[in-house]
Amino acid sequence: MLSFDPYQQTDRENYKLLIGSVIPRPIAFVTSKSEQGIVNAAPFSYFNLVSSNPPMLSVSVQRQGGQKKDTARNILSGKEFVVHVVDEENVFEINETSASLPPDQSEIDVTKLTLVDSEEVGVPAVVQSKIRFECVLHQAVDLPGADLLIGRIVRIHVDEAIYKEGRINADLLKPVSRLAGTNYAKLGEVFSLKRPD
Ligand SMILES: Cc1cc2nc3c(=O)[nH]c(=O)nc-3n(C[C@H](O)[C@H](O)[C@H](O)COP(=O)(O)O)c2cc1C
To answer: What is the pLDDT of residue 99?
Structure first.
C-alpha cells in the first residue's frame, strides 16, 4: 500500500487523489439567483443526501483563489436554490454551464436549457431534468476552503415517465455521475444483495 500525508502534498495532488477515490459521485445541477436577479447555474459533485426526515441535501462549493463562487454567494444571500438530477440527456448542456462566467452573466444563456418558475422558492428551475428539488438553505458551514450548504427540500418534482407507485425507475432516469478529471459515468450493471437479519 502507498501511504500519503495530505499535509505534505500540494492541493492539486490531494484533489486528484480524492476525486479519483470517491467515485462515482452524484452530480447536483444547482440554480441560484443573485441579488441583482441573475440566474446562475452550475454542477457540483460534492453532493449528497444528508437527511430524509426532514428531507435535506448538501452541496459543497469550493472557493476559487480564496473567493466564493457565484453559487455560494447567491445561496448565502438569497437562502434558496434548486438542485436538478443530472442524466444522460442533459449532461452535455450541464457540463457547458461549468464555465467560469462573471456574476452578471447567466450560464443558462450559453446553453439550450430553459427556465421554469419554481413553486415554493423564488429561484427558477431548468426544465431539462427529470427530477428536481426546490430547497431552502437550512445551514451553511464556513469550512476553511469551501462553503458547505445544507438545504431543506421543500418541493420535489418528478417526471411521471420515470415514476411508478412511489418509486423512481433508475433505468429510465439514466443518471450520470462524475469521476476524476473530465470523466463521467453512466449507471453500470445493477445487482441486489439481501440484507442479513
Ligand atoms: C460535473 C462537475 C462537477 C463539479 N463539482 C464541483 C463541486 O463539487 N464543487 C465545486 O466547487 N465545483 C465543482 N465543479 C466546478 C463548478 O461547476 C464551476 O466552478 C462553476 O463555474 C461554478 O459556478 P459559479 O461560479 O457560477 O457558482 C464541478 C464541475 C463539473 C463539470
So the answer is: 87
